[in-house]
Write the structure tokens for this entry.
Amino acid sequence: MDIRSDEPELRTLMLAGLEGDEASHKALLMKLSAYLRAYFKGQLMRTGRGPADAEDLVQETLIALHTRRHTYDRSQLLTPWVYAIARYRLVDYLRRTKASIMDVLVEEANEVLAADDPMAVESTLDLEELMAQISPKVSQAIRYVKLEGLSVSETAARTGMSPSAVKVSVHRGLKALSRLIKQRS
Amino acid sequence: MKTDELIEMLGTNLEPVKGGQLRNGVLIALTVAVGTVAAICLTWGALGMPTDWQSGDHFGFKAIALIFTLGLAGAGASVLFKSARPGQSGRRPFVLIGLLLVAVVSAAIVALAASDSFTSSMMGGPWGSCLICIPIFAVVPFVAFIWALRKGAPTNLILAGAIAGLVAGALGAAAVVVHQAGDSIPFIALWYGGPVALCALVGAILGPRLLRW
């Protein structure tokens, strides 16, 4: 499957996700994760890294796509936005891990996200371990809202936080998680 | 962690996203920047800074210098909106910035060739206040732009930083121009263009440090 022929469908899912449609958002991230996996695996192979590293990068990029989704301009194509974020995460990863960037950045957007790879391996990230490193208030909000699926108002009632404080905590928590992921690799 | 677990987590209790958040952030930063510079302009006399308003012969050069600095600020500001968003690029503002620079620099060269004294056209104006005031005036606008960019997702950090520095410097230069314009094109090119370029350079250096995400 080619990401360009998928563009209309991906964009429809993105627009629905921005309106708050959970199923569309999950479907979008699922489809994108396959493209990202193929992309990162291909790029990292040249620097001698394995599938687990690629999966780390897939997850890091998914969090970035999620927490930065307000930067997508609804009137534009989705694919260039996804590609710019994926490439930014890749360059940042290589810089952090001191690999040579010169090996990687010679390609064009189109060939890059062209293939997909649905075979997920487990990343090296341990969510529980990461959650232990963020503030208890924030990790509790994430646990209730994002892992147990309680509504924001239920979480607010249980934790004694205001609903808007819960929302802010969840948003901060996801960003903190992506920061921690970056620090450990 | 499995990727589908992460996706499940990200998609659970999804909050809708309001449109225009990012544009509003940049607009707020621009308002703060322009407001700060306007405030400096208005309190100029109270700050004890000299002004050339008494002598009428500066008017033409003042207009040219204002067009130059505000043109740079305007073209740069439109890039600022785009550079907060991944995957967007536009060539037109860069063409405008390039044209302004080429026009002013070439006019300066022509004027220099025609003038009999190099030093009087280069140093015959308030170059000290240009050099010191423009970078100082640019600080608050620059901080505001960095704040706005950090709310977005800039993917070219050097460029985003440089543009933030350019717009901040150009606004600072416009504030100086209103009160002290100098009296030759070479002066405008060197002592207004120079500090603005310096601000852009500092922005380019700071960008990767301040904007990384």
User: Anything to note?
Assistant: The two ends of chain A are 31 Å apart (CA to CA).
